[in-house]
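Risk register update: the risk of archive-format incompatibility is retired. Evidence:
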Amino acid sequence: MLFGIDLGGTKTEVVVLDPKDGHERFRSRVPTVKGSYADTLSTIRALVAQAELACACRAQAVGVAIPGTISKKSGRIKNANSSWLNGQDLLNDLQRTLRCPVLLENDANCFALSEAMDGAGQGKAVVWGLILGTGSGTGIIQEGKVLEGLNSLSGEWGHNPLPWMDAYEQELSRIQPCFCGRQGCIETFVSGTGFEAEYQRQSGRQLNGQQIAQRLAAGEVAALRTFDLYLDRLARSIACCVNFLDPDVIVLGGGMSNFDGLYQALPARILNYVFGGEFDTPLRKAVHGDSSGVRGAAFLTNAA
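Archived output:
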């Protein structure tokens, strides 16, 4: 059996998949205890024990999707927006806690791997998966393998500057810095958090994405303006990656992927910015939704 854990900012989830067909044998999720590294370890231990009991088998290995990466220099976690993980020896601590091999991978990479294996990117050689949620991470899968890079930075698209910023966006970049400490990051504009922040600027009201979607469907001017700005910013950001990666498929996940209007409107917007004026890349919604991260983590253990 393939055991996977998704260590998210709001929930921690376990799944057990059948190695023959990827069929789900068990799933459970609990709220993430924020700010406590010790509680993180105990939560994962409890979830794995629950899954082992339910499936009547011992985990031979556990894949874990994390909101960061492992430094190849120190072996410790870096770049995690769940800041209590940064600087921790999570890999070895989990292996001691679970008493089995553990494979850690960035959550966006796990999302992309899941969709490449049996989701919206199945059968494609180069799959680019974008999570547009609280943050905006991406993962790149090439021939069924995660592209990590020498510095474990492949896919860190959200921490590049928003391309071709106008004066309004340049001003926003000065007053709303990214959690990484820099200004003008793509993540601050195209994440669900960035979308909600723009709606508040346009309307003077603080609403969540689902509430804004309802107002968008009703034709509210502020919601329409917010969505138009979002489309253009996302199109510019995607076009820059297409210009150097040119993937075979782009898969969207996270809360913003549930805006069905994206799939009709985005391709033409991207076409405006892609070098050469040609863009035929399929743009698809994730098949497995917010379960892709934990499924991808489980798939990590295929070769373990």
